[in-house]
Amino acid sequence: MNRNNKIAKRFALAALATTLALTASACGGSSGPETAEGETANIHLGYYVGGAPSLTSQGLVMLGEDSAMQEAHGIKLQMEEYSNLSTMYTDIVRGRIDVSTAGPSTVASSASQGAPVAIVGKIANATNSAMSTGKPWDADNVRGSRIVTQTSSSSWKSVEASIANNLGLQSGQDYEVINSDSTAAAAVQAATGKADYAIVRAEQILLAEQQFPTLKVVADASELGIVPGKADIGYVLESNTNGLSSANGEKLTAALAEKTAWMEANPDAVEDFAVARGQKPGIAREFLVSGTISYDVQPVSEARGELEKEFEALEKAGIIEQMPPDSIYG
């Protein structure tokens, strides 16, 4: 997510702290109101747009415009676009929206602080890549290097854990971390020699390769996985548990699974949709056909085992202070 900087993160956490007292009395159970059999579930969904819409959110945006598919799955989506992440994070905690996109460690941190949030399901595997103008990605080269990244992002937390677990190196001790407001800005710094590596994700990888021919991927998402050779979970649906029941969350996940399968089968249509909303021509189609994105939509009941392993690795590396409560799984 672009522009997810430290200021936004601190604002979100501060807002979370002030709203916990307000939401605690309403927590009651672990899920929001159920809909009767045959009734349509009304779901208020928030998504983030920084400049051109992120392609990792495009499945939700396209689902939001597909009333027939929504009806087939017994849901009706009210879509809300956010240009400020801190506002979206605050709104999910306060229950002003029912669902938003997030990274796993972001939801874990909120849930550990008592926020009424849970993971509804997995959307896609991580897209993180390390980019460099020529320096290989291994322990000898990463040691003493400068890595520019969006430090407040959930994706960086996973990469930081990967470096600790797989290369045996600690941030701030064995290598320097330079904060960037976005992964696009991180790519610029690596391309211009201000850093040895940039951690870039999603469509920004393809955009950076076009803009800077000398900048190449030296480690992809599978190589940066906490488990070597396996990409982490990068994107999940986060819900306010007072606003969305587990059953309605499963309806939403099933609809998104159908929509992303359609997207993978129709890359030209996805390309047209993205370009009409400001994306650079050719990027959306390449994003799908190149395998830069790997959609793997699953309800949390199926993704729980994978999530637990990631949280264990994040805790072991000191990236999160404690394992999230079981309530995170709905």
Structure write-up:
- With 330 residues, the protein is an alpha/beta fold.
- It has 13 helices and eleven strands.
- It is globular, with a radius of gyration of 19 Å.
- The protein starts with 5 loop residues before the first helix and ends in a 14-residue tail after the last helix.
By DSSP, the count of extended strands is 11
Percent of residues in helices comes to 40-55%
Sheet with most strands: 6 strands, mixed
User: Runs with pLDDT <50, length 5+?
Assistant: 1-31
Overall SS class:
alpha/beta
Topology, please?
Blueprint: H1 6-24, E1 41-48, H2 58-64, H3 67-72, E2 75-82, H4 85-94, E3 99-102, H5 104-112, E4 117-125, E5 129-132, H6 139-142, E6 146-149, H7 154-167, E7 176-179, H8 183-191, E8 197-200, H9 203-211, E9 216-219, E10 233-240, H10 246-265, H11 267-276, H12 283-289, E11 295-299, H13 300-316
What is this structure, in a nutshell?
The chain is of the alpha/beta class and 330 residues long. It contains 13 helices and eleven strands. The strands form two sheets. The protein has a six-stranded mixed β-sheet, sandwiched between helices. The chain has a five-stranded mixed β-sheet with strand order 7-6-8-5-9, covered by helices on one side.
